[in-house]
Amino acid sequence: MLLHKKLKFVCRFRYLTALLLLCGTSILLIQINSALRRFQSYRNKTFSSVIDRSLYAWEKWTSSSIESVLYRTDETFHLSTEAGLTRETTTAPSEDVLNLRLRTVSSISMSPKGIPDKPRFQKVNDFDAWLFSAFYDNLNNSDLIRVFGIQPLLLNTPVFCHLTEGIDTYTVEGKKTALNDWHKKRRRVFSYECPLNETSRPNNVSLTFVETDTPTNSFLVLYPERIQRNFTVCYSMLFNFNTPYQLVQNVEFNRVLGAEHFFLYRESVSSAVDTVLKHYQRQGFLTVIEWPIPVGEIHYHGQILSLNDCAYRNRGVSRYVVIQDTDEFIIPHQHDNWTELIEVLNKEFEQSNKSPSENLGAYIVLSSFYQQSPSSSEWKEIKRKFSVSDQDFQKFANFSLNVFSDLKRLNMYFRGQRQKSFVRPETVLFNDIHSPDKYRPGIAKVKVHVDLAVVHHQRRYSSPQNNILDTTSLRFKDRVLPLISETVSLLSL
User: Fold this and answer.
1) pTM for the full predicted model
2) Is the Cβ–Cβ distance between 200 and 194 less than 8 Å?
3) 311-347 burial, b if ≥16 CB within 10 A, otherwise e?
4) Distance (Å, whole) CA 451 – CA 169
5) Which keywords does this Swiss-Prot/TrEMBL entry list (predicted)?
6) Which value, to the nearest 10 degrees, does the dihedral of the CA atoms of residues 316, 317, 320, 323 take?
7) What percentage of the chain has pLDDT greater than the value 90?
8) Which residues of 54-90 are buried (b: 16+ CB within 10 A; e: fewer)?
């Protein structure tokens, strides 16, 4: 009996001990968690929401400080060091050209797609509105978050921005601006602008059209980074695209001209084109963004949205973006590459305007349609002058290299709806298909003389009567053709 009582006492004591140990551990964990939160607050770090499965931290310091950035996309971790933000007020346009002297970023690793926010269309509750991406911006010396999306022009609602910074979320009323659409479709591309105070640097934003609605969308806010390259090509979105040779021809020619990276928005492509895209992605100079446009009744599958998304993604990253289609080539007629061309244009601008070339936002190049092959007699002289071998000539035909074969253009140049541009992305507010639609204050543009460069638009436009022979593209044959041949052979196209 006595032994039984002792055993009951020992069991009860053990249970009590375990319970006390469990309570003590819980209290300790709560204290550790509280200390970590206080430490995070002290260090002024912010982390993105679990919804996006992204971890994003930064410290805000003075212009000479160093900022560490850690974020996660899927299972790939990224670590960067960045110099802090600072305002510039010395020149007229600088207050509106982002007002940023941005950060030195040393990327340790990149996710497979190289896109930290994994962009996708997200709906605004039950409204007929879809959002795609969000960016930090500065306009008229005021900080803001800019979100791009699609909605009907006549959907007249307010917009409310739910901004997440660290563990805190607050709501402000924003405004929205419809981008120009010359085709007058029912749905338009919109820019939604969320004002910030001077110290706010949110890492996530959600939009609703009713203040009390629970958001059904969440976007990682993208901040400009340091300059990594000179030229980035922004292609229009690809829809039912099934010409792999055209893509290879354009990419390799542009690489020779100076393109270092390409952005492409893919809605639907053939398997052969997809093979080319994967190859260039593996090479590291192509970013493919999926484009499953969720609505109709908008011009050309939301093309203007994709081009503005591309330009904003390259602010602070690329000195220039080149907006073009895969059948267009901005070819210098007196220089060997885009860098030499831009240097000449900058010098001419500074001399004639007594203003620094940093005030230039766009270099507008006129276009013409190259739509006919030379005659047999003309080819005889061309082959001799440019050392075009029979093997080269056969490749022109086999690979559909019309940039080298269709050398006769219209006897006119197009401006306005056919021109294309080199754009400094931080100087432009909104881009159109052919040139910027709206510049930031204090920004100028130049029109490039046709003696210096022309957009070679390689497709049939009208009757081939009175066409003019232009062999400029063949100056680049010996540099471009081996690259095309290598890629076609490697991919067995």
Assistant:
1) 0.77
2) no
3) bbbbbbbbbbbbbbbbbbbbbbbebebbbebbebbbe
4) 55
5) Glycosyltransferase, Membrane, Transferase, Transmembrane, Transmembrane helix
6) -110
7) 62
8) bebbbeeeeeeeebebebbbeeeebebebbbbeeeee
C-alpha 19/C-alpha 90 separation (Å) is 67
pLDDT at 284 over 60: yes
Cα-Cα-Cα-Cα torsion 298, 303, 306, 312, nearest 10 degrees, comes to -100
Residue 475 makes CB contacts below 8 A (sequence gap 6+) with: 386
Q: What is the pLDDT of residue 289?
A: 95
The whole-angstrom distance between residue 25's C-alpha and the CA centroid of its chain comes to 49
Q: Does residue 138 register a pLDDT over 60?
A: yes
Non-local CB neighbours of 401 within 8 Å, separated by 6+ positions: 245, 249, 395, 481, 484
HSE toward the beta carbon, residue 154, CA cutoff 13 A:
3
What order of strands is seen across the sheet that includes strand 453-457?
Answer: 328-332, 453-457, 367-372, 408-409, 468-469
Distance of alpha carbon 445 from the chain centroid: 21
Q: Which token pair is 165?
A: 């910074």
If phi > 0 it is left, if psi is from -120 to 50 it is alpha, else beta; for residue 316 that is left
